[in-house]
């Protein structure tokens, strides 16, 4: 079908070529021969009067015009997918589809694992791909690379709908045989005097480490750093270290490991785990159903214990 001289079938090919930046890989994804894909690239170059992809060394790079076209073409295809192509007669018991979610190991352990078990019982043919948080989760959602973001609200896009799943607070964790920890409440002096295991990552400056340094300065001795909160219990047990982590994740590990949990000696703003989806998928029956199930199964988690200073917002997740 042609629209103002452009064969609209070529939009799918253009999207794939610009995403892969490799004719052979694009041909494989499109289930076309390499010669047919090369021919399509030639026609696209003629229509746009631009090379679109140029050889540089062993790879291909996009021209400035191609860089402009890629998000626009992806946006058009997603709009067609979300608003025109309607999956008829949605039935959870028979739907066969892969759902992609960006979520941390914390989110997967604390909430998604249980929710997906319940969803699997109702929709046995659904499969899920849980991807780690990237440097650009908003971009992944915009491009249609994923169906959902399940992340702290601070990382989400203001341009797409979202819904709160639950909030969480924090606990200090130590080995149960740590002789340096007092029997009563943990004081700030005790906390700062101990050796720490801590999480460092670059997803956002709005993380616990940045918040702590801003409030207390470099007053801790960080003996070991890691990239994920799920590592912290293993770096604490058998040592005199202390670490801070999400309460619900700490409770999971305390059920399996010799850990003692204590309230931090200062108030820490909570995290608010939120589900976001692309606005074009607002009426996708399958994704709507999954959203309802995720919100329902995580409703019991949506409480936090301590009061938090007004006006502070913190996203600390690994």
Automatic annotation (TrEMBL):
Lineage: superkingdom: Bacteria
One MF annotation (Gene Ontology) recorded for this entry: DNA binding
InterPro entries: LysR-type_TF, LysR_HTH_N, WH-like_DNA-bd_sf, WH_DNA-bd_sf
Keyword terms: Activator, DNA-binding, Nodulation, Repressor, Transcription, Transcription regulation
Domain HTH lysR-type, first and last residues per copy: 6-63
A Pfam family recorded for this sequence: HTH_1
Record-linked Gene3D superfamilies: Periplasmic binding protein-like II, Winged helix-like DNA-binding domain superfamily/Winged helix DNA-binding domain
Family to which the UniProt record says this protein belongs: Belongs to the LysR transcriptional regulatory family.
UniProt-recorded name of the protein: DNA-binding transcriptional LysR family regulator
The organism's taxonomic lineage, starting at the top: Bacteria, Pseudomonadati, Pseudomonadota, Alphaproteobacteria, Hyphomicrobiales
């Amino acid at each position: 079908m042609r629209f103002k001289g452009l064969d609209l079938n070529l939009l799918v090919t253009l999207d794939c070529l610009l995403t892969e930046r490799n004719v052979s890989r694009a041909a494989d994804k499109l289930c076309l021969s390499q010669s047919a894909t090369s021919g399509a690239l030639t026609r696209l170059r003629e229509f746009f009067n631009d090379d679109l992809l140029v050889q540089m060394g062993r790879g291909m790079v996009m021209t400035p015009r191609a860089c402009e076209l890629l998000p626009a073409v992806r946006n058009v295809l997603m709009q067609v997918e979300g608003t025109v192509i309607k999956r008829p007669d949605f039935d959870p018991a028979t739907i066969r589809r892969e759902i992609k979610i960006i979520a941390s190991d914390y989110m997967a352990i604390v909430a998604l694992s249980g929710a997906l078990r319940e969803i699997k019982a109702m929709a046995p043919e659904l499969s899920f791909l849980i991807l780690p948080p990237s440097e650009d989760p908003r971009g992944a959602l915009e491009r249609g690379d994923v169906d959902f973001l399940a992340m702290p609200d601070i990382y989400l896009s203001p341009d797409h709908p979202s819904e709160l799943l639950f909030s969480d607070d924090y606990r200090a964790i130590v080995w149960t045989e740590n002789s340096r920890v007092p029997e009563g409440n943990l004081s700030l002096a005790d906390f700062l005097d101990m050796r720490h295991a801590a999480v460092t990552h670059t997803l956002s400056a709005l993380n616990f480490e940045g918040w702590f340094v801003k409030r207390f300065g470099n007053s801790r001795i960080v003996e070991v750093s890691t990239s994920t909160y799920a590592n912290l219990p293993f770096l604490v047990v058998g040592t005199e270290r202390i670490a801070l982590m999400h309460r619900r994740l700490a409770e999971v590990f305390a059920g399996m490991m010799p850990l003692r949990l204590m309230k931090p000696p200062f108030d820490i703003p909570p995290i608010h785990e939120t589900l976001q989806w692309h606005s074009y998928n607002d009426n996708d029956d399958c994704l709507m159903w999954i959203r309802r199930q995720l919100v329902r199964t995580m409703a019991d988690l949506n409480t936090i214990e301590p009061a938090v200073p007004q006006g502070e917002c913190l996203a600390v997740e690994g």
